Amino acid sequence: METTLEKQPYESTKEYGGFWLRFAAYLIDSIIVGIPLTILSIVIFMIFFGTSDAFNTMISDPTYMETEMTDEEAFAFMGSYFGALGVTFLVNLIVAVAYFAGLHASKWQGTVGKKLLGLKVTDLNGNRISFWRALGRYMAMAILSGIFLIGYIIAAFTEKKQALHDLIAGTVVLKK
């Protein structure tokens, strides 16, 4: 009796990370990044406004701004405000890029939230992505996917469960 084995091509079955699992991972990441950044932002504003006498006077006398504040004090106050806002924006951007793009390009292939939920970010062939692709993915997520949340919602309707930023960057989120 002769037995013939037919050669079947090996095909790995990829299981894609769905919307709700990815949402939970993002929620975890938002807490991990958001709490320290909020505290840091408060500290930055306190440092900038700590140098402004106008702010201390406004705290003790709320009518001071309308009645006694000089133009120089108003400009100093606004300078402190916009300076703090600019520094806070830069710090938040640097930390968010380092966290999201850095961890997506790392050997973890995902953020802490994705790692905890068994997800990883790969290119379309299942390979680890570069930092630059991860940066592009993050920027597309930050700028485009948040508009009416449509960028996230389309993940429910694509074959590979890709959000808009995944389609732009050529990435997928897989279950490990």
Architecture overview:
It is a single chain. This protein is mainly alpha-helical and 176 residues long. The protein has one domain (19-175). The protein has 8 helices and 2 strands; from the N terminus they run H-H-H-H-H-E-H-H-H-E. The longest helix is centred in the middle third of the chain and has 35 residues, at 71-105. Residues 5-11 have low confidence and may be disordered.
Beta fraction: 5-15%
Count helical runs: 8
> How many discrete structural domains?
1
Total DSSP E strands: 2
Biggest sheet: strands, sense, closure?
A: 2 strands, antiparallel
Anisotropy-based shape: elongated
Order of adjacent strands in the largest pleated sheet: 1-2
Low-confidence stretches: 5-11
Break the fold down into its secondary structure elements and pairings.
Layout: H1 19-50, H2 53-60, H3 64-67, H4 71-105, H5 112-116, E1 119-123, H6 131-145, H7 150-153, H8 164-169, E2 171-175
